Amino acid sequence: MLYTDLFFVFLFLPVAVLVSFFDKSPEYKNFALILASLVFFTWGRPILIALLFVTVIFDWLFGLAAERAKHASVRFLAAFADFGMNAAFFVVFGWNGLFHAGELFGRFSFLSFSDKLIPIGITIYTLRGFSYVFDVYAKRIPAEKNFFCLLTYMVNLPLMVMGPVVRYGDLSAQIRHRQFTSADFSAGLTRFILGLGKITIVATALGSLKAAGLDTGESTVTGAWLGFAAFIGQFYYTYTGYTDLALGMGKLFGFTLPENFAPITARSYFTGMISSFNTKLVDLARDVLLENRFAKQNKALRLLALIPLCAFLALWYQFSRHMLVAAAIAVFFLINEALWLKKFLDARPAYISGIYSVVAVSILFAAICFPDFHTFTGWFSSLLNIGTDYTLSVAVKYTFLSNLLIYVLAAVYAILPLRRKITQLFRALALKNNSSALTLHAVYTVALCGILLYYAATTLLAL
Questions:
Q1: What is the dihedral of CA 381, 384, 389, 390, to 10 degrees?
Q2: How far apart are alpha carbons 166 and 37 in whole angstroms?
Q3: Is 402 strand, coil or helix?
Q4: Is the distance from CB of 211 to CB of 203 less than 8 angstroms?
Q5: In the predicted structure, residue 215 carries a pLDDT above the cut 60
Q6: What is the DSSP letter of 140?
């Protein structure tokens, strides 16, 4: 089951939210959420997969040891043992293809499972477990004495698939006490519908344009440009969409989750753009690799630590060689900005910084988009109108015109200053007249529902 499945959207989630309203006590709400999360996590899979949740017991015990142990070496061993346990589950389930016959670890093919066995959200799940023990070890938070509270954090439906890697310190107080109002319900429903629309409508339409534009069998200059722009847009709307789903569901269950994307400006440069995307995952990687006493005391070591940091972030999304190339590109730009490039650009006009940032990020996305050098050179040649027979293919033209309204709306939404202005106007209206703001918000939610249902109906009719 996925967040975008019709069964989940129209039956499973409404029932889970409704059941959570039967009692106001946090203990009941936590129990209802855990039960719904377990059903979602194991849906269509052998019930033995629930044994994965035994790892919560070890996370809990390792967390207590990381806090209570008298010797620093024992505390470190507890954190390291938890890292090893979660890393093992991460590799076996998250990178399961490595154990297929003929792959890197093919000799251990007994660890290769079918897709039906691999749990949804396992990579997010293991990172949550490790982040909790690490934060206890680093003395950012106290160890959780109540196992039931930690289980609520680990087995949490809104955080199961590609959502923010929420740290326990962000959620612990809300697990014990959270308030739920009609405004929270409205905000959560709107955010959820917005995320669903981004994934099922916008990202899907951009994916079609990407496939048509980057078709190696019919390379055109227009297709090269539009296809690559569509790839970046699909990447953005997919991940922001899943984050919106997570934050929206969090609101529906009474949680206020941290935002996972920070605003991007011309002065963000490459470093700021990387940090702004999936901020919670980047923060965790930075805390582990850059914010330790060794990296803080030695600038050279801190810069070298960028190599494993970027490699981890790249391989977390996909285990492949071209993602390691993308990591190397990221390290190149990050180190140069840290050493001299940021100071150089700070003294230049903002538009120069903006052009540089766009070019740098485009190079990174090109490395992610194309799996090998031959495909990349073919696309780059088409980009410069070298070796192309004509300017625009029929497939690109048809796809673009068929989804023109979606592309226009996606482009307008991506204009950050415009979105900020609309948000400011809405907040000003809410302060001036709250009832009018609620009415406007309800109209906005209904309009989003209408658009989503319309495109869902047209898709079903097309089938």
A1: 140
A2: 16
A3: helix
A4: no
A5: yes
A6: S
199 in the same domain as 83: no
Is residue 355 domain-shared with residue 401, that is, in the same domain?
Answer: yes
Compute, in degrees rounded to 10, the torsion defined by CA atoms 11, 16, 240, 333.
-130
Other residues' Cβ atoms within 10 Å of the Cβ of residue 387? 10
CA distance 129 to 58: 9
CB 1 within 8 A of CB 43: yes
| Inside any domain, residue 263 | yes
Residues 274 and 304 placed together within one structural domain of the fold: yes
**263 Ramachandran zone, left/alpha/beta (phi>0; psi -120 to 50):** beta
Whole-number Å distance between alpha carbons of 100 and 259: 37
Exposed e or buried b per residue across 39-57, where buried means at least 16 C-beta atoms within 10 angstroms of its C-beta: ebbbbebeeebeebbebbe
- The predicted model gives 33-62 an average pLDDT of 82
- pTM score, whole prediction: 0.87
Do 188 and 116 lie in one domain? The reply is no
Residues 6+ apart with CB under 8 A from 429: 436, 437, 440
Nearest to 159 by CA among 54, 281, 27: 281
In this structure, are 39 and 130 located in the same domain? yes
Q: Is 377 domain-assigned?
A: yes
Number of domains in the chain: 2
Distance set, CA 399 to CA 210, 215, 232, 257, 382 (Å): 10, 13, 17, 37, 19
Amino acid sitting at position 185 = F
Tokens of 193: 């519908």
Identify the weakest region by mean pLDDT among 283-292, 405-414, 454-463: 454-463
421 pLDDT exceeds 80?
no
| Domain boundaries, position 145 | 26-178
Q: Is 357 exposed, middle or buried (0-12, 13-18, 19+ CB in 10 A)?
A: buried
With respect to residue 134, please indicate whether it lies within any of the assigned structural domains.
yes
Nearest Cα to 334, choosing from 314, 358, 354, 309? 309
